[in-house]
Structures are given as C-alpha cells and as structure tokens.
Design goal:
The protein is mainly alpha-helical. It contains 3 helices and no strands.
Length: 73
C-alpha cells in the first residue's frame, strides 16, 4: 500500500471528525446523545494526551468501535 502524506492527513482528519461526532455531538446510538471527552485541547501541546478521560475503558472501547464504523462507511 502506497499512502502519500496527503492521504495520511485525510485519514487523520476523517478519524478526528468521526471521534468528535461520537464524543461531542451524540452521533452514536450505542453511546446516546451525551457529550464525552471534555474540552479536548491542542494535542500538539500534549494537553489532550495528558488529560484524564471522563469515561471508562469499556466506554472508550465502544467509542472506538463507533468511530471505526463511521470511518468505514
């Protein structure tokens, strides 16, 4: 598979938007219409990585599954 930087950036953007759709905008029947994940922050400054999540690992697994489903559509 020959992925260019442009395509790689596209994958990152679509994944980021899909995660926002699930976590912040309630686009998940499994999660429901709730906002999860807090404010986010700038991942380039390490803020998002260092923040504790406001949901369990089981919920994180569901979020990951929902994000993957949205991306693969």
């Amino acid at each position: 598979e020959n992925v260019t930087t442009g395509a790689s950036n596209d994958f990152q953007q679509v994944s980021r938007v899909a995660r926002q759709m699930v976590e912040r905008f309630g686009f998940s029947k499994k999660i429901g219409q709730v906002a999860l994940g807090g404010g986010g922050g700038n991942p380039f400054l390490g803020q998002q990585v260092s923040q504790q999540s406001d949901y369990s690992m089981a919920t994180a697994d569901v979020i990951d599954s929902e994000v993957r489903e949205l991306v693969e559509r």
